[in-house]
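Problem: given the chain below (266 residues), write out its structure.
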Amino acid sequence: MTERRLTSDKKIQINRLVEILDDFLPISTWGNSANSFEAIFKESRVHSYLDRKGSKNQRLIYGFSKVYQQHLRLPYTILRKVLSQGEQYRKYKRNPIKPEEIEELRDCLRKLELNLDDELAAIDINPDLPAIQVPPKDLAERLENHPLVEEIRSDPLQKFKDGHFNEAVRKACEKYEVKIQQVSGNTAIGSSLMGQVFNPQNPTITITTGRQQNSATIQEGYQKLAMGMMSGIRNIFSHGDEDRRTPEEAYEMLLFVNWMFRNLED
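Solution.
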């Protein structure tokens, strides 16, 4: 039975909650680590709430909406685990939770009529934040001055400049995936989505860059590049336990994703 009404105002706050918690934990991990949203939902036997296809953001919005709407006490259980594990994960990622994030969370939870003030107050806010390696100034300037598509110039660029290299690449790939879903109307995800949409025999999106006689080869090549980007970049960084990449490598991957976006525009 439904415990709460999910009004339009509450939906806005659920979306806001997911945006705040996005960097607290990965959606899943390769190993046996319990530090992921999937593991937390599985422990509460509501793993199916995250089975919805889509990006990390879309899956979490659906999952938290279902938990909030259909369970009275479970939101507290899940959020307590997210806060506890997220605190440790953020320290491990050299990006501790900031006071302004705590305040935003407190305000959001109150509007959802969830009182977790004690748990929020217990989070260790260390004023001496560990040094985060920022990219060399010339590299950041080169990326910023490059003709980036809007999807890369937004969150991914800022995360790169702030020193969150893996997260910058993950965001860029997720934005590309969402773009393909929107343009094609296909709800598949990852390499399966790319294989279907750019299928040379029956493409939903046709890549026309280059000479006409090379169109079939270009279509097949772009399909394989898009599939590889999902499997070899997006999926790896989405699990959150990948070693931190260098700014130079992240810079190159962001330009590659930007190039993939450019071919869509062409």
